[in-house]
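My hope is that you will study the record closing this message with an eye to the fold:
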Amino acid sequence: MCTGLIIGKKATENSVVLIARNEDSSKVNWDKCLTYRNNPQYYPAIDNPYVNNGEWTLSNGAVVKVPENNFAYSSIPDSPSCSNAADTVKQRFEFEARGINERNVAISATNSMEDISDRIKELDPFIKDSGIVEAVITTLILPQAESARHGVELLGDYVKSIGAGEGNAILFADIYEAWYMEIASAHHWLAVRVPDNSYIAVANGLRIHDIDLKSEDVLHSDGLYEFIETNHLLDKPDINNLNFAKAFGALGNPYNTDRVWLMQKLLTPSQPQATRLEQYPLFMKPDSEVSVKNVMNILRSNYNDTVLQDIADRAIGVDRTIESHIITLNSKLSDSFKGVIWQSISSPLGSPYMPLYTVLDRIPDDFTLPEDAYAPVKAFWAFRALLARMNVCSESVKRDITGMWHVMENGFIADYNHFVKSATDNDDDIRRAKQYSISALNRSYKAAKQAYDNLTEISVQQNVNVKDVVM
């Protein structure tokens, strides 16, 4: 139930490759926790409870050979209280939604595809018990991937050899390019390179169409075209212009198409489109260079002042988002600063996007794994509680707190842009970057707690303006 966005480097401010996503859930009763993995789960392979005879068993039961690469990486797993993770988290790295590894390869990987057709599920049924699922994709791929394309190839090989347990969309990026991949059955998938001058908007429905399977910018499962042709999944399949989404999906669900329409409207207003089409253009060019701040606003957006106001029932910015991230990769910067994660804890409707440099290898305790499902002293629940309090406040109060986060974010962006212009890989700059990320986390957490305490003391019925209080 997520919303994602990929933007090529010639379509962004500062020529960065950008991937972003709201990680949403049907309910929010557990928290997400920041962590840095010096070693992946399978390393060291000796005396490791998850490795036996050169094979690594992932948390859902999938078994693979122990990989050769073992890159360090950042991630944001679910807490142990998550019902899906059950007893597997802690050292099992469950639902690591996103991350960047030490090779500056990024993945965002827990975006469910919910419109797979019933016929596909019969022809090539998902392997529920031990197939590749979103809960393990980042844990499996990110410690190995040497580039975005390599990450796609690795995941595709696992889908071929093990099979997939569900439909998924995965965003890949490195400092040069970005790829979008859809897994649509147990053994079939397709990935496309996002053009440098364009973007792709993704909801929870299959998106890939009008694709040349012979293009060097396309990767796919073995026998994909033959599978479509043999099973008559398209009336007139064209290997040079294939509609993958139509072959494997049930198209036109407003739950998904409304969000795609909205993102394309916000980024390319010069090209108005009808609402609720069965499919929207796969790639579009933005009207102007897209900034990180633009993407923050998109991930918080709704249908107000559009023709779908009071009609669409699924906005992009929703309170059940459990974390939101924007990852940028800049080839022009020194290695230690090429990648940065702009991270919102809980929903960005009640939390700021905070800059996390990839060199941040020690996370403040308040942002790490808690022991209980609800722990008011933990950062996730501070942001979550503030949003809950905001939801019963007047519109003016909501605007004031949202304004507080915008001011903070603008400061973070300005500081980041100033620092990375001259930052190098020397120890002093790396130390400063780590300290700044820790400071950004702590400042935001403190502001959320203070704003919540102030709102608790203010009578909402009196409609008191809390701008001076929370800022």
